[in-house]
Amino acid sequence: MSPSRSRNQTELDDVDYGPSRTQQRRDALAVLELAGQLVELPPSRLAKLDLPDDVRDEVANVRRITSHIARKRQLAFLAKRMRRHDDEAFDAVRAALGENRERLRQETAAMHRLEALREQLVDEEGDETLSALLARHPGIDRQHLRSLIRQARIEKATPNKPPKAYREIFRVLKELGKTDDPADR
After folding, report:
1. Cα 145 from chain centroid (whole Å)
2. Per-residue pLDDT of the chain (185 residues; tens, 9 = 90+)
3. Cα(86)–Cα(50) distance, integer angstroms
4. Which domain holds residue 78?
5. What is the domain-level CATH number for residue 68?
């Protein structure tokens, strides 16, 4: 025992007072964030989650409210209802939302890669990119893809022309991505 600490202070250190007020606030904010995620979920996904009935009803109430302040207050009430339940009641929900978040992140990254590839193809120096794409996918309709690229370049140069071919290129690339073997990447 250090000379600066009295015996009573050392005994008090051994007593467990539970979580600190700061930790309680962090936990409450985490539940509030989870409640916000539940409210933002589409009804079809929400139906798949195993939620207590009172929480499910309260989520429906929050969705009906359009006023910002009233919605915020009702969301806080939903979080309060959720805190009344054990943490274990929402572990499966947290796991499902966490897995979904990672999957969405991967899908977004794949979409960005396709958009970048489309930009490279439509760019004036896109011939090398097109050659590499055709080498990777020998079964692709070359003539159709070249025609789409020419049309997309014309659309890009012409203001007020809808980007129909530009969108079609994205669809073609997306279909190629679905048939692509993940081991090849």
Report:
1. 32
2. 555 556 555 555 566 788 889 999 998 998 999 999 899 988 888 888 888 999 999 999 999 999 999 999 999 999 999 999 988 888 888 888 876 677 778 888 989 998 998 898 888 777 888 888 888 888 888 898 889 988 988 888 888 888 898 899 889 888 887 776 444 44
3. 14
4. 22-92
5. 1.10.60.30
- DSSP assignment letter at 41: S
Q: Do residues 90 and 56 touch, judged by C-beta distance below 8 A?
A: no
143 token code pair: 């003539």
| Inter-CA distances, 90 with 2, 31, 41, 46, Å | 44, 10, 15, 13
**75, two tokens:** 């969301």
Cβ atoms of 104 and 113 within 8 Å: the answer is no
Residue at a domain's end among 34, 63, 92: 92
